[in-house]
Design a protein that fits this description.
The complex is a heterodimer. By secondary structure, chain A is α+β, with helices and mostly antiparallel strands. Chain A is 30% helix and 28% strand. In chain A, the strands form four sheets. In chain A, strands 1, 2, 6, 7, 8, 9, 14, 15 and 16 form a nine-stranded antiparallel sheet that branches. In chain A, a hairpin with a 2-residue loop joins strand 4 and strand 5. By secondary structure, chain B is an alpha+beta fold. Chain B has one helix and three strands, in the order αβββ. The radius of gyration of chain B is 26 Å and the shape is elongated. The chains are: A alpha+beta, B alpha+beta. At the A-B interface, helix 3, strand 4, strand 6, strand 8 and strand 9 of A face helix 1, strand 1, strand 2 and strand 3 of B. Strand 4 of chain A pairs parallel with strand 1 of chain B, so a sheet runs across the interface.
Chain lengths: 278, 95
């Protein structure tokens, strides 16, 4: 088991053999898709957030994935959220964010009707600042696992595995993940204040503000890491409707509220019962 | 009848320019999209229609108009089970 830091988190790989390949993959994705690297392609595209732009195949592929995630979540996990994140104060690498600052006003999240992607041609008919954090880390974990082969990869606790793996989850429990992906979204991590008001990185597209949700942490298991991460974010943003949204899709989900109480979806109860269901 | 103020005239010019930019961008995108589609091997003359991509969404899709072979393909399911007290190898949490 070995690792390195990338994308603002600790990346752990089950075996050292392919570590350098995995590290290069993370660094390449981070430099291309980060809002926090001045020369990233994403920042070049965001510098003119309107009109027709020819983008790389890599960005087109990742943006396509992000738009697909938006489709699958009814627009909750959207790549059009960049402007709202900047508006909430998340305008630089989290480690460099000042803990407090001037009060901020919400920035509306543009409709995805403002975005058109055809091959490498991107059209934005309104100002749309892109943010791909909803999918980049999870997709990179999945692609890293393809490099590793038999084993597992974790980035900041978002995991993909082909072998049985015991994973500690928020609240003190653990679960065995036999294969697939597991991810946790949390409003307790990556928080800061503006005008004394607590901010976090999970924006509710309906308000343009950091989501007000009864859940502190949501953990979801799915077929791969990016699917688990997208589902966890959507379930957290949905609030009390999150558990039933996961159950309708047959996804095992585990919710921890702000008092630390654990709630399980029916699907999670069936596969790994340990607490009373939500 | 009062003449529009200079500010109002300037606003009108800005609106006109923005509208023109939007229309031009949309037209340019349509041309590029048509050219890209025409040049695509799956849609070029002689190609079998059965090989065309099925990942294209309709233009009135409220979540964007996407043509790609690498789009999000659903949530699926994983295999999880109780850990029965085994020591965890890794922690999930906090993304």
């Amino acid at each position: 088991m070995t690792g390195f830091r990338s994308m603002g988190c600790e990346v752990i790989v089950s075996c050292a053999d392919r570590l350098e390949e995995v590290r290069r993959l993370f660094e390449e994705r981070d430099h291309r898709f980060s809002r926090f690297h001045d020369h990233s392609e994403l920042n070049r595209v965001n510098a003119t957030p309107f009109g027709v732009t020819l983008i790389s195949e890599e960005l087109a592929s990742m943006l396509s994935l992000g738009l697909g995630a938006a489709h699958a979540t009814g627009g909750l996990v959207t790549p059009a959220v960049g402007g709202a994140l900047v508006g909430a104060g998340y305008d630089r690498d989290f480690a460099s964010l000042p803990p407090d600052g001037d009060a901020v006003e919400p920035v509306p999240v543009p409709s995805l009707l403002s975005l058109r992607l055809r091959g490498r041609m991107l059209l934005r008919t309104d100002a749309v600042v892109l943010d791909l954090n909803g999918v980049v880390k999870g997709k990179t974990v999945d692609d890293a696992l393809a490099i590793v082969g038999d084993g597992w990869v974790s980035a900041g606790g978002d995991i993909a595995t082909t072998v049985p793996l015991v994973v500690a989850v928020p609240g003190g429990d653990s679960i065995r993940l036999d294969r697939g992906g597991l991810a946790t979204s949390s409003v307790a991590q990556r928080t800061w204040r503006r005008g004394g008001q607590l901010q976090h990185h999970l924006i509710d597209p309906a308000t343009g503000r950091p989501a007000r949700t009864p859940w502190r942490d949501v953990t979801v298991a799915a077929k791969n890491c990016v699917a688990a991460d997208v589902a966890a974010k959507a379930a957290l943003l949905l609030g009390f409707a999150g558990p039933s949204w996961l159950d309708r899709r047959g996804l095992a989900g585990r919710f921890v509220d702000h008092r630390g109480a654990v709630h399980l979806t029916q699907t999670w109860q069936q596969v790994a019962p340990d607490r009373i269901a939500a | 009848m009062t003449q529009p103020s200079r500010i109002e005239l300037a606003r009108r010019r800005v609106r006109f320019v923005r509208y023109s930019v939007g229309v031009t961008a949309a037209a340019a995108f349509a041309v590029f999209a048509f050219a890209a589609r025409t040049a695509h091997p799956g849609t070029s003359a002689g190609a079998s229609t059965s090989t065309e991509s099925t990942a294209v969404t309709s233009s009135d899709d409220p979540y964007g108009d996407v043509e790609s072979s690498d789009s999000f393909d659903g949530f699926g399911s994983s295999s999880v089970s109780p850990s029965y007290g085994a020591a965890p190898s890794v922690q999930s949490g906090g993304s």
